[in-house]
Amino acid sequence: MHSLMWPSNWMEQTACWPLLLSGTILAALKSQRISKTMRREKILHINHYSADEIIQRLEAQGYFANKKIAYSVLNAIRPGGAPLLVEGDPGVGKTSLAKAVAQMLDIPLVRISCYEDITADKILYDYDYQRQLLVVSALREKLNEQVKNMDLGESIQKIAGQAEFYGRDFLLDRPVLKALTMPGRKVLLIDEIDKADTEIEHALLELLSDFAITIPEYGVIQCKEKDRPIVFLTSNNYRELSQPMLRRCCYLYIEHKSYEEILAIITARVDASDEFRQRVAAGLEALQKTNLKHMVSISEGIEWARSLRTVFGCETAADIEGALPYAVGALAKDRADEKKILHTLKSVPAAGV
C-alpha cells in the first residue's frame, strides 16, 4: 500500500489559506462594490435615457408614471438639476414619487416631514448642548484652578479654548445637514412644505439655490457637487408658497389617474380576475371625483382590493357589492366619508366611464 505523499512545504501552503481566502473574499466584495457603483453611476448619468426608460424603471419600483412625470424626473436627477416641487391632491403619489426615484437609483432617501410650528433646528442643524455640558463638567475641576484669578471675560475665553464647543463634533446631523455632508448622491424629500411656516421656507433658500447652509457659529457647509442631493418638495396647496422658493424650483403637478392607469396598477399589484380588477379600478376612479374630507389614495385602494380578496374572498363584481358595507373601513377615515364612499361605490358601473 502506497502512503499518501504530502508536499514538503504543505504546512507553509496551508498556513497561507486563511490569507488567500480572506483576499478572495475582499476582492469579491470590492468587485461587487465597484459593479454596484458603476450601475449607480450609469443610472445617474441619464443624458442618453428616454422618458419611456424612466417610466419602465419607475414601474419596476411599483410607481406608474406618465411622460410628464418622467421628464420632470429626468430634469431633477440630471447633474445640476434644480429641486422639483410636486403638487397635487392628497393621494396622487407625490411622496411615493420621491421614494421610487431613490429606489430606482439605489441611493438613500433623507426625509423631512413638515408640520405646523416645525422649527429650523429640527430640519437644518442643531448643537448638542448636553454634550457641551458634559465636556464642561469633565473639565470643571481643572478649569476652576485655572480661572480662579481671572475676571469673567478672561474665564469665558479660557473655557472656550479648552474645547471647540461650536465645532463639527458638537453639531447634530439634522436632515439637511445630513444630506449635505453624507458622501454620494441621495434623495432629499421635504414633504408637505406647505404645512411649515414661511420662516422655514426662507431657512431652506440657501439649500435650494447653493446646496449649502450657513451656521453663524461655525461657517458655511457646502455640499460637494458630486454629492449633491436630488431634492423633491411636495405640497398639497395648503397655503401659497413664497416667490423666492418657487423661483428656485421646477414644478410638477400630478393629476388624478385615469381609469386605464388605475387598472394597470391594480393589475400589477393584485392577483384577481379581470372582472374584479375592473370593478375596483372603476370604484377608485369614481372616488377621485367624490368630495371627501380625506381623499382616497391609490395605495389605500390597493390595500382595499387586497382586503377584498384575502379577507372577504371576493372573486367577482357581485362579491364586491356584497362586501362593500364591511370593507369600507379600508377607505373611509370618518363617518361622513364612509357614507359618501358607500354611495359612490354602489352607483359605479364595472368599467371606467
SSE order in H/E notation?
HHHEHEHEHHEHEHEEEHEHHHHH
Radius of gyration: 29 Å
Question: Strands of the largest sheet, in order across it?
Answer: 2-5-8-1-9
Helical content (DSSP H or I, runs of 4+): 40-55%
| Mean of all residue-level pLDDT scores | 84
**General form:** elongated
Termini Cα gap: 89 Å
Number of helices: 15
Q: From the helix content, strand content and strand pairing, which structural class follows?
A: alpha/beta
Overall CATH class of the largest domain: Alpha Beta
Low-pLDDT residue intervals, each spanning 5 or more residues: none
| Total number of domains | 3
Q: Strand fraction band? A: 5-15%
CATH-defined superfamily of the largest domain: P-loop containing nucleotide triphosphate hydrolases
Structure notes:
The chain is an alpha/beta fold. It folds into three domains: 51-120 and 175-253, P-loop containing nucleotide triphosphate hydrolases (Rossmann fold), CATH 3.40.50; 126-170, no CATH class; 259-345. Helix content is 54%, strand content 10%. The chain has 15 helices and nine strands. The protein has helices at 10-44, 51-60, 67-77, 94-105, 120-123, 129-147, 152-162, 175-181, 198-210, 243-247, 259-269, 274-288, 298-310, 317-327, 335-346; strands spanning 84-87, 109-113, 126-127, 171-172, 187-191, 212-215, 219-222, 230-235, 250-253. Strands 2-5-8-1-9 form a five-stranded parallel sheet, sandwiched between helices. A two-stranded antiparallel sheet has the order 3-4. The chain has a two-stranded antiparallel sheet with strand order 6-7. A hairpin with a 3-residue loop joins strand 6 and strand 7 (219-222). Helix 2 packs across helix 3 (67-77) and helix 6 (129-147) crosses helix 7 (152-162). The protein is elongated. The termini are far apart. The mean pLDDT is 84.
